[in-house]
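Hello,

Our lab assistant flagged a job as stuck in the queue for most of the afternoon. It eventually completed. Since we weren't sure the result was trustworthy after the delay, we are filing this so someone can double-check. Below is the sequence as submitted and the structure that was eventually returned. Let us know if re-running is recommended.
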Amino acid sequence: MIKKSFGILLTSFLIIQNLQAAEAIVISFRAPLLSARTDDSKTLQVLRKGEKIYLAETDLKDPNYPEYLETIDRSGRTAFIKREYLKIIWKDQRENTTAINYTNASTGHDSTDFRPEEPIPSTYPFETREFTRLNVSLAVGSNPKGPYTYSENISEQNFSYETGARFLYQRKADFDQVDRLYFGLFGSVASVTNKVDFTSGGTSKENRSLFRLGPIVSFDFYKTQKHLLNLGTGFSWNHHRSTITVSQTGLGEEERLFTGFSISPFIQSQFAFRNFYPNADFTLGSELSFYLPHTQNAGSDPEFNKYWSSESPNEFQQTLRLQAQFYMGINFKY
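-- returned structure --
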């Protein structure tokens, strides 16, 4: 065993002398020694950053020296190493042209360094799931004023706030390299109840329900480890259901259902307190929606003609309407 080790050392010494070796330092995290001057050749040995090796000066005499430089491995075999993984010890001003840390020109970092960046994702070693967001929120909004066009004179109207729930599912755009641009699907359910009193003594109760669904695109304009500000825009297809019940003492009551569809573009902003719980953010947001004019239709004719519109008793017409909404919820990252 001693004779074999001595033979390898002696062989290496003689080869180094024969090569008229020059010194170099490995500056990449890992540097393979190859059996030929190609990437797909056999790997003979792997060197670590900071190790010293010897190069054949014949490769360095030409100013346009080859991409792979000749050296020897620990067994004394001829090997080749990529020039970009090395800082050659010229002992003159040429050393200033090579940095002490290797950076790949294409990727901008050391492509041989396979260690994960810190902080290590909580899902490591599996793929990070923070590129998918699911937001579930409770919302309150301004009242969609504009009651049905009754034929009776109105003495008083009572409006309440619109309340409901909303969800937002988004995924990061595939071409986004900075994790800021997201596309997704928006949906919400909301309801509100309004009351109308007539001068004749009758009353009307309007129970309105709204179901929304549509696409959304958003962008993280401000992002730190603790906070995130996201702005988004999109539009939704809306299904309206309005149940109107008119009543008067001595005449009884009549209930009618009006349904219809509309489209509403919207803009929204969302501020998140990040990771208040593992893989979850606490969010506060606002939304401004523009409901385009639309008509809701009843499925049957009225019985109490006294209250319903004399011109279009089976239509509930809505003009252009602007609504502000505020919401609070949880943003799940999975």
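-- support follow-up --
The delay was a queue issue, not a problem with the job. The result is valid. The radius of gyration is 37 Å. The mean pLDDT is 85.
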